[in-house]
Amino acid sequence: MTAFALYALTIGLCLSCTSNGPAPRRAGAAPAQGVEEPASRQFRAWLEAFNLGDRAGLVAYHGRNFPYEVASSDVGTIDRELELSGGTGGFDLRKDERSTETTFVGLLQERNSDQLARATMEVDAAEPHRVRRFEIHPVPTPDELRVKRMGQAEAIEALRARLDGLLAADRFAGAVLVAKDGVPIFAQAYGLADRERRIANRIDTRFRIGSMNKMFTAVAILQLVQAGRLRLADHVGTILTDYPNQGLASQVTIDQLLTHTGGTGDFFGPEFDTHRLELRTLRDYVTLYGQRGVEFPPGSRWKYSNYGFLLLGVIIERLTGKSYYDWVEAHVYAPAAMTSTASLPEESSEPERSVGYTREHSRAPWVANTDTLPYRGTSAGGGYSTVSDLLRFANALVRHQLLDAEHTVLLTTGKVTAPGGKYAFGFGNDSEDGVRCFGHAGGAPGMNGGLFICDSGYTIAVLANLDPPAAGQVAAFIRARLPAH
User: Fold this and answer.
1) Average pLDDT, the chain
2) DSSP assignment, residue 143?
């Protein structure tokens, strides 16, 4: 995942690939003025069918233009295209990058976000110019197509309009807060917290935050470092002397756990699904996964590791003699006045906690995510919070109420290269237009969130009780438009 993991939808498909190499290109003069090249014409016909999101239309297009039988080998491709169409809202063609008789390359923009993608289509030189190769991949936005920053009031109005549109399309339900110098300038809730009982989301609704818990865990670890009770260079086995796999314990350091460079892997997957409700304490995870070794030499590369942050919680428990939950409550939530943030078991009755909604694909109905949830959140993620509490956390952090200035900088400054930017200690760290922001995202079925704390003085907190990228796209939208100072 990226440091902020804000663009969660993968755009990448090879719709038709042959082993014969690219189609031959005919030498000769450019086409007559006003005559569209066959490749461009084919691409625009596909784009029209794609944007309509109609299965019959896509089947008809493929039947005419792809060199294989739709009924046999192309059903999966059409399903993927329909999912991409629904997830992106369709594409607008922003720029023709290359157009010849047999090749078209263009930049597309999602209608649901600012994300760009590059489409490449190659067609036969001979009539009827059937498609030989077609790929779409996400790309960084070139400078000339970047969203222009706005004045604060204009940016907030643009955000309001975007949210109204997403609500109308049933693509966002949650809460959004934007603050300047610690003071909210926009705070609004949208959609339903409980669709069955028709309970609306509010600013004080508690949303599950997924991996955003990692920020709280990292702060608690750095507090122990600041107090001299732990060193970043300590190995796991220095604290967890009875850890089952001594190879891992003797190699992986605290700073490697904090930066996802320890090779400690994940715990999500079939085994987790089998034991989901049996994993009630952090030690239960160690009992289930603790025999595993490292996936790669610690420190050699970056790979997101939920299990690494689970181990950080176990280390907090061993050093303090308290449960992870009690320690973070006393040393992170309480000093920051975060009164609506916790990780109580899912079976507990929590007032104002929203129901998460997930769906199999973009045209399927929303259903409650109850059957995907763990027994309770952990030091790796899965708790719940409000956008107001996230702002309180951000304010406490930048005002050095949780850590001193030196350790706050140490916590939030990027250490290793990760997809989308740098990764610090439990915080992503990246820059847009010279504006540095740090924070973390979270996402799982029926939950999505993101927090940006920016050097420009703006803080953005978005939480949603829908699948990713519901919150991520909103956070990215306003971040790109707010003033740079």
Assistant:
1) 90
2) G
For residue 68, the one-letter residue type is: Y
- 3-state class (DSSP) for residue 97: strand
One-letter amino acid identity for 291? Answer: Q
E-strand stretches of 66-182: 91-99, 103-110, 116-123, 131-139, 174-180
- Residue 223: pLDDT band (50, 70, 90) is very high
Per-residue pLDDT, 77: 78
By CB neighbour count within 10 A (0-12 exposed, 13-18 middle, 19+ buried), where does 98 fall?
exposed
Residue 434, pLDDT above cutoff 60: yes
Report the run of H or E that residue 352 belongs to, with start and end: none
Helix, strand and coil in the chain, % to nearest 5: 35, 25, 40
- Res. 319: pLDDT tops 60: yes
Q: pLDDT at residue 471 above 90? A: yes
d(Cα 75, Cα 60) in Å, to the nearest integer? Answer: 12
User: DSSP code of 170?
Assistant: T
Phi, psi of 362 (to 5 degrees): -65, -15
From the CA atom positions of the chain, what is the Rg in Å?
A: 24
Mean pLDDT of 422-445: 95
Q: Using the predicted structure, report yes or no on whether residue 400 has a pLDDT greater than 50.
A: yes
User: Taking every pair of C-alpha atoms in the chain, what is the biggest distance, in angstroms?
Assistant: 80
Residue type, 356: G
95 φ, ψ to 5°?
A: -160, 130
- What values do phi and psi take at 117, rounded to 5? -140, 150
Q: What is the pLDDT of residue 34?
A: 54
pLDDT at position 185, please?
A: 98
Q: Which domains does the chain have, with CATH numbers?
A: 13-145 (3.10.450), 152-481 (3.40.710.10)
Residues sharing a CB contact under 8 Å with residue 265, sequence separation 6 or more, in sequence order: 289, 292, 294, 295, 303, 305, 307
> What are the catalytic residues?
211
